[in-house]
Amino acid sequence: MNTEIEKVYAGGMEKPLMPQMGLIQRETRRFHSLSLWLAAASALSILLLLRDLVFCRQVCAQLGRRAHAAEAMLRRARDELEVRVEQRTADLTGANEQLSTRLRAHGGECEN
Asked: Among candidates 44, 25, 26, which has minimal Cα distance to 36?
């Protein structure tokens, strides 16, 4: 390894410089720049993932609310149908009793 010091004139001033130091400084700046880019890209990726997570949570919450509303609608429809079935059954039972009564009144036998 060459440890001789070269003298470089910059702006009218003489300053010592080792050839390896210039390369090391350039590479250090390059790696520093790359590390900043990597940190920025990582931060951006994290922010995008967080945004996606928030969006997914909002969609899931909305789907949950819709499912809850749909279940409530189904329960109401089932309850209304049960009431209608009970009413129709009562109507049919009453009509059957009337027919039986009429048949007996006319002297016919009715089988239940």
From this structure: 44
Q: Check if the beta carbon of residue 42 is closer than 8 Å to that of residue 29.
A: no
pLDDT digits (tens, 9 = 90+) for 62-109: 999 999 999 999 999 999 999 999 999 999 999 999 999 998 888 766
Every domain of the chain and the residues it spans = 21-105
Strand partners, 14: 9
Cα 66 to Cα 78: distance, rounded to the nearest angstrom: 18
Nearest alpha-carbon partner for 16 in 4, 5, 2, 26:
5
CA neighbours closer than 13 Å in the CB half-sphere of residue 6: 10
